[in-house]
Each structure stands twice: as structure tokens, then as C-alpha cells.
Automatic annotation (TrEMBL):
One of its GO terms (cellular component) is cell outer membrane. It holds the Pfam family TPR_11. Keywords: Repeat, Signal, TPR repeat. This is Tetratricopeptide repeat protein. PROSITE patterns: TPR (PS50005), TPR_REGION (PS50293). The lineage of its organism: Bacteria, Pseudomonadati, Pseudomonadota, Alphaproteobacteria, Hyphomicrobiales. TPR repeats lie at residues 62-95, 96-129, 130-163, 164-197, 198-231, 232-265. One of its GO terms (biological process) is receptor-mediated virion attachment to host cell. Residues 1-24 form the signal peptide.
Length: 277
């Protein structure tokens, strides 16, 4: 059954999806700050102290609370982030970026219902806010609501988003459906928008591998490891190619590295068992 007409590609619901792989995003248009655009370093104690000083000088400025809330979020101080986003919204009930940022914190806290409600409100306030569609789409994807997830990523892309997450996450949906040529296009676009991010290389490599293009797959997995050697998936993917080539010792070494990074990573556990046996 096709869900889309015209020039949209057909997509059917998936039984299972790949895990969430968030990418650093570019800031979207409009005033205010998107939490995904805050660099990790901006969650430092020094920066938060500086932002607190700004709030002390401007206690009625909703943007100041939104920015500090974003920094709290980057620092993993989620309850403090919520308080700042609550204040920003109370001072400016039309502050759509603050709703989207609060939604992300609710998601981190496992409060999916509240997260969807905030994303819905952000979109109601600004129907062209791509970050809200991407955030809500990823939440839908993780909860198995694949059709709605696809619709949201599609909408963000139709809005000419420059956020690589829209393409990366849509690529994961195509990949989960076995539509690997479409997935390759989306992963490649995500790479062009975020060339230093490892995740889309891992995604594209898996689709290359599914299409029998082992050489390009191996190249992508190696690039992913060079960009971020602390992601277990990259090592497990590299090991899978070694395993397919019959290089069991190299495969075992890469699988062990993946397990060193994430002792519970299932594909690495299974792979190491195969090559060790």
C-alpha cells in the first residue's frame, strides 16, 4: 500500500527500526536558539555562569532563559533545563523554539507524551519550523510510528532544511524497508551537510553492503571510525566486512574493540561468537 502520491516515494511501516543516531545540527532560521545547535562546550560551568549573569541583568528576557536552558541540556542538567524553558515560555507563550527545546528534554527524560505535545505546539506556532518536524519525527521513529516519522522528515526536507538529521533519519527509514538506493541518496546528502559526522557513513556503508558493494561499504566504515573511534557500531561494521572476507582474526579484533566501547552491543557479541567459533 502506498502512503504517498505524486512524486513522493512510497513507504510502508517497518516492524523494527535502527537505533537513534543524533547528529549535530545547524541552527534553523528565526530568532532564539535551537538546543541542537549548541556546541557541547557551551554546557560548561563557565558558560552557564556567564549565561546566569545575563539573566540576572535581564530577568524578563525569554531568549536568555532559552539559551541557558539549551546549555543546561547540553550539560545533561535536564531538570534545570526544563525550568528555564518553562520560564521562557511563560514570558513569551509564542516562543516556538523554546517549545521544541523543551520537547527534546522531555524526550531525554522518557516523557514521550509531553515531548509530542510540545513539538505539536511549536509547529502550531510556526508551521515552517523544520527542527520541530525533525524532532517529532525522530520521536515517532523511535516509538515505531514510522509513517508519521516519514511524513515529518519529508516535511522538513520540503522546507529546504539544511539540518542533516532529516536526511539521515529518513535514510534509516528507507534502509529499514530495504529501499537501499533511496537510503544511499539520503545518507550522501546528510554527509554533504555534516561531513565530520560518523553516523551517516555507518548508515551508508550498511546500505552499500546490502547492495553487494563491499568496497564502498568498507571505505565508509573506515571513514566512520576515523571520524569517531568511540562508536561501537563503526568497529562492528568494519568487523563484518572482515568476516565476509574470511579474515577472522581482523574481524575478531574489531568486534572486541566494539565490545570494549559498548559491552552490550548485540551485533558485536554475535559477530565475535561467529568468528571465534
Amino acid at each position: 500500500m502506498q502512503f504517498f502520491s505524486g512524486n513522493m516515494r512510497p513507504f510502508a511501516p517497518a516492524a523494527a527500526l535502527f537505533a537513534c543516531l543524533a547528529l549535530a545540527a545547524c541552527q534553523t532560521a528565526g530568532s532564539g536558539t535551537d538546543i541542537t545547535a549548541i556546541d557541547t562546550a557551551q554546557g560548561s560551568e563557565e558558560n552557564i555562569a556567564s549565561l546566569t549573569a545575563v539573566i540576572e541583568r535581564n530577568p524578563r528576557d525569554p531568549q536568555a532563559y532559552n539559551v541557558r536552558g539549551s546549555a543546561f541540556g547540553r550539560a545533561g542538567r535536564y531538570r534545570e533545563a526544563l525550568e528555564d524553558f518553562d520560564t521562557a515560555i511563560r514570558l513569551n507563550p509564542s516562543y516556538f523554539q523554546a517549545y521544541a527545546n523543551r520537547a527534546l528534554i522531555h524526550r531525554y527524560l522518557g516523557e514521550s507524551g509531553k515531548a509530542v505535545s510540545d513539538y505539536n505546539r511549536a509547529i502550531q506556532l510556526n508551521a515552517s519550523y523544520d527542527a520541530a518536524y525533525i524532532g517529532r519525527g525522530n520521536l515517532y521513529r523511535l516509538n515505531g510510528r514510522t509513517r508519521e516519522a516519514f511524513d515529518d522528515f519529508q516535511r522538513a526536507i520540503q522546507l529546504d532544511t539544511t539540518d542533516p538529521r532529516a536526511y539521515h533519519n529518513r535514510g534509516l527509514l528507507y534502509q529499514a524497508q530495504g529501499q537501499h538506493n533511496f537510503a544511499l541518496e539520503d545518507f550522501s546528502t546528510a554527509i554533504s551537510l555534516a561531513p565530520d559526522a560518523a553516523e551517516p557513513y555507518n548508515g551508508r556503508g550498511l546500505s552499500y553492503l546490502a547492495l553487494g558493494d563491499e568496497e564502498n561499504a568498507f571505505s565508509d566504515f573506515n571513514t566512520a571510525i576515523k571520524l569517531d573511534g568511540d562508536i561501537a557500531e563503526g568497529w562492528a561494521n568494519q568487523a563484518l566486512v572482515y568476516e565476509r572476507r574470511g579474515e577472522k582474526q581482523k574481524a575478531a579484533r574489531s568486534y572486541r574493540q566494539a565490545l570494549k566501547l559498548d559491552p552490550e552491543y548485540g551485533p558485536a557479541k554475535a559477530g565475535l561468537s561467529r568468528v571465534s567459533g
